[in-house]
Amino acid sequence: MSADRPPHRRPIVRVIAALAAAACLLLAPEPAAADLQGPARPVVINTDMGVDDAVALALALQSPQLQISAIVAGEGAASRTAAVHNVERMLDLFNRQEIPVFASELEGGSPIPPVRDHAEALVGAALPETTVWLRLPFAPEAYRSAAGPTTVVTLGPLTQLAAALERRPDLAPGIERVVVAGDPADRDSWNLARDPEAVRAVRHAGVRLQFVGARGRAAKSTAWRSRGLPESRSTSLGDAFLDRLLAQPAGRAHYLDDVAQAHDELAVLFLLEPQAFEASRSGDVFMPRESVDVGARLAELMSRGRQLTQPVVLSNRSIPDVMLQEDVRTRRDAIVAANGEDEWFAELLLNELHQHLGAYSILGVKMGLRAAELLNAPRHGMAVVSHAPATQPESCFDDGLLAATGSTPGRGLFRQEPGPPGSIQASFTYNRRRVTLRLKDAYRDQIQGRIGELLGQYSLADQGYWDGVRAFGLEIWQDWHRLDLFEVTTETIGAPPAAPGAP
Question: What's the pTM?
């Protein structure tokens, strides 16, 4: 009998089958989160890549709710050249190279806005350099999606959209609506004031406009003031980007102090959580409800990445305390505070299906979630190859991978292959990127040492042994943070299609 398997535990094959059956209900959203029913919505994003554009784009690129069919980048807060290049860098960072970038054909207006230095320098410094060339020459068809009626989200002036509709008025029926980051009642609304004639032209084309404004109700998260500081524990790519942006003193001063209210970010939040907004009397201007903490919602979505999923059986994840065992109930708040709601819930369901709370299955969840964060992958999106030993207790690790990723054998996304002797590792592939995560030797040695100590005190028939294994598993669940546990190797798989004009 395995030293990590209690006598009553189900065979591992049955556990994996149960996990596959439950994969679609894992990680159902909180009641406050967006409604994910139905397919992802086709969206075209128009941006001039100001600092708030970049934060809004990070939110959109991490959302499983939005099917981004194209991004149009042009002049405004940033120059056209800088805007296009920084969009390409963001798509590379967020592993979304499948999204085409259309470079605006229009030259910049005048005067040059005073925020241009911030827009170009701060965003540029927060992004890694890239040689990926995704840009395409602008074509009006950028605003059309084969997936159905398109929502255009404008995070900058409407200049390019107006020009496209003038050239191709037949595009208007295919645009369901244009969500504009800006409030017509706010004379300082940059996106509208930069080119008011473009706003009128788009309206004249017969396209429905929805304006989203702050109205003093969109203070940024106080939690973001700790971003970029040593105590930050960023896990999502969005949070990591925000860390780099706000680690710059000028970035903190500009984004948090000079512009204390969210602006362009609200347009994306409106798409994701329309129930958080109320309409004006005219019906075409939307503002956050007074009861909504906009900063908290933005911070939550930025930290969650693409882990939100469509509920299938559960309506929410509010598991009452009475349903939890005492040793789990007393740790609940600490576990969630340290590791987040997604890991808490994945581990909860895993352990109930696994019928055993032990070290390796707990670590499998932590590794699977970390890989999804690094690849910006949605659930059921990664191909997973486990290189953990196929014998117990180490094979329990595979059950955790399945629970965390949804990459089940039934979806053809999971397989087991031999790996280096004594190593606990797995490879994860999504889009054009692969990461291999390996449990650090120091943590592997702690597990082996702790189990060895228990075996020195008890036999496998003693309840004291299994109590000790459970207590150690709870300690790992709460105190071993997934940022610390793994060595990470990243590689690029293939290359994006060559764009016209690429060097």
Answer: 0.85
